[in-house]
Design a protein that fits this description.
The chain is an alpha/beta fold. The chain folds into 3 domains: 172 residues, no CATH class; 139 residues, 3-Layer(aba) Sandwich (Rossmann fold); 120 residues, GMP Synthetase, Chain A, domain 3 (2-Layer Sandwich), CATH 3.30.300. 36% of the residues lie in helices and 22% in strands. It contains 17 helices and 19 strands. The strands form 3 sheets. Strands 6-3-7-8-9-10-11-16-15-14-12-13 form a 12-stranded mixed sheet, sandwiched between helices. It has a 4-stranded mixed sheet with strand order 2-1-5-4. Helix 13 packs across helix 14 and helix 14 crosses helix 15. The longest helix has 17 residues. It starts with a helix and ends with a helix. GO terms for molecular function: acid-amino acid ligase activity.
């Protein structure tokens, strides 16, 4: 028996028994109280009278009445730019040692402040994730194995009084000392800035590691596994890491990647979804009998929900000032919401850009359904990324292909709008009726799309291309690896530039 692993598993069971799941509504009210109390003497707290809010009969309602909704541009222009200039006590007490650079799928890269309190929050959320492993029936020796955390480089950029990098790199640079023996690829390899070189070193060192779990964005995990398999002349990754049992996904929906990832495995893994963003660790899957993630309701983040309807959003994809905003206890299940967060990094009623659906209110479980700016509604389609992912899964089954990536835009053709898709797959299908099949799947899934197809949306075109072309585009115009994600929806001008680049690859 793996004695150490058995002790760790028993400790997890005992800790989980002692620390039962909190009541979500009660925990959220307490989190908001703590946030307001700690930030009441900051410039932001004084401007929006946090002290008065704390003494009101209903602090949640008073908070929502006093503080406006912010997107990144507004919060940065009004407040956060002072932080980059070295000012302190602006939106959170003190200053910060780090800024997280977002992947910027919908805009240019953003610099999100990361306070010491946020780093502590991320660590505590990570412990909650580890504690939930007791629900997944893993063997004792799993807890002795190493963890491959494939994120961005831990070689951070020094800027005056702070450092900058992606949140995965910042988190890895601050892992606890006790965890470093489990962490791979280790700080030396994780410091390599060039993605291809970093993956090459991982492939070279892989035979000496005993990896039990993987963590990272699916597309980059898949690319890394392919390189390890090719370099070491393996059939599957289990030939070199036989104890690999768990994959902790994050950043994007995992399901579109499952089919292609499992071709690299000798057997399926236990898949656990997480929701770590540049703004904080928001949710994690805590049980195996669901694909939903539980919001971390008791750890420095207060959540709010705006019904995702045309009436509540402006043309730029921002929440309108008069839109109704609900706390968790007032929100409903199975409704698309724009997610707002207030955090221990000094984000206040901040529109993170994601849309979510509450699937189990009692457990505070959600699914990510898309992005506010990755919602295709140019001519009334009203398609969410969640519905697009479901349609892609149907195509995978129908045509027996793997579709890790895709992108769509409404473009004009002969003076009228069509939806044009590029689908990144493991094989091309030049003669297959992919576009009609995709069109039919979306019409079945979305009545608004079906109506649009009879009126303003005059056609659907789809081209299946090698998925490697998506990754070459990402390397050229964004960057490869880490937190970088492929956008699902593009504006017409951006899409035409993307199309021109794809065609240039031949």
């Amino acid at each position: 028996m793996a004695v150490i692993g058995e002790l760790i598993r028993k400790a997890i069971d005992v800790y989980g028994f002692i620390t039962s799941e909190p009541n979500p509504a009660k925990a959220q009210r307490e989190v908001l109280r703590q946030l307001l109390e700690k930030a009441r003497l900051t410039a932001f707290g004084k401007r929006y009278t946090f002290t008065d809010i704390l003494h009101s009969a209903d602090p949640v309602a008073a908070f929502q009445q006093a503080v406006p909704v912010h997107d990144y541009d507004k919060l940065h222009a009004d407040w956060w730019h002072y932080l980059e200039e070295g000012h302190q006590n602006v939106t959170w007490p003190g200053g910060q040692h780090y800024f997280a650079l977002s992947s910027g799928t919908t805009s240019t890269s953003k610099a999100i402040p990361v306070t010491d309190d946020m780093l502590d929050s991320i660590r505590k959320s990570g412990i909650q994730q580890v504690m939930s492993l007791k629900n997944f029936d893993l063997p004792a020796d799993f807890f002795e194995k190493q963890i491959m955390m494939l994120g961005s480089s831990v070689n951070l950029i020094q800027k005056d009084d702070h450092q900058e990098g992606e949140i995965s790199g910042i988190s890895a640079a601050n892992i606890p000392a006790w965890f470093r023996g489990y962490y791979k690829p280790g700080t030396e390899i994780a410091s390599i800035l060039d993605w291809d070189e970093r993956v090459r070193r991982i492939a070279q060192e892989a035979p000496g590691w005993d990896i039990g779990s993987l963590s990272g964005i699916p597309s980059w995990i898949e690319m890394m596994l392919k390189e390890v398999i090719a370099y070491n002349k393996l059939d599957t990754i289990h030939d070199i890491w036989p104890n690999l049992q768990v994959y902790t996904s994050g950043g994007v929906a995992f399901e579109p990647y499952r089919k292609s990832l499992e071709t690299l495995l000798a057997r399926p893994l236990t898949y656990i979804d997480t929701y770590l963003t540049s703004e904080g660790y928001l949710a994690t899957q805590k049980r195996p009998d669901t694909e939903s993630m539980a919001l971390i309701v008791d750890n420095g983040i207060f959540f709010e929900f705006v019904p995702f309807t045309d009436e509540n959003m402006d043309e730029a994809g921002r929440v309108k000032p008069d839109a109704p905003v609900l706390a968790l206890e007032a929100a409903d299940e199975n409704v698309d919401y724009v997610l707002l967060i207030s955090t221990v990094s000094g984000a206040w009623r901040y529109m993170i850009g994601d849309t979510v659906m509450i699937t189990d209110k009692q457990r505070a479980e959600i699914k990510i359904t898309g992005r506010t700016k990755h919602f295709l509604n140019v001519v009334g389609e009203q398609l969410s990324v969640f519905q697009m992912n479901q349609a892609m899964q149907q195509l995978q089954q129908q045509f027996n292909i793997e579709i890790p990536e895709f992108v769509v835009a409404a473009v004009r053709k002969n003076g009228e709008y069509i939806n044009k898709w590029y689908i990144g797959a493991n094989q091309t299908l030049p003669d297959a009726p992919v576009a009609p099949a995709l069109d039919e799947a979306l019409q079945v899934a979305n009545k608004n799309y079906k109506v649009a197809r009879t009126k303003s949306l005059k056609g659907v075109e789809a081209e299946v291309i090698p998925v490697e072309k998506f990754y070459r585009w990402s390397e050229e115009f964004k960057k490869l690896g880490g937190q970088a994600k492929i956008p699902r929806v593009m504006k017409e001008a951006d899409f035409l530039e993307f199309e021109q680049y794809i065609n240039s690859l031949g």
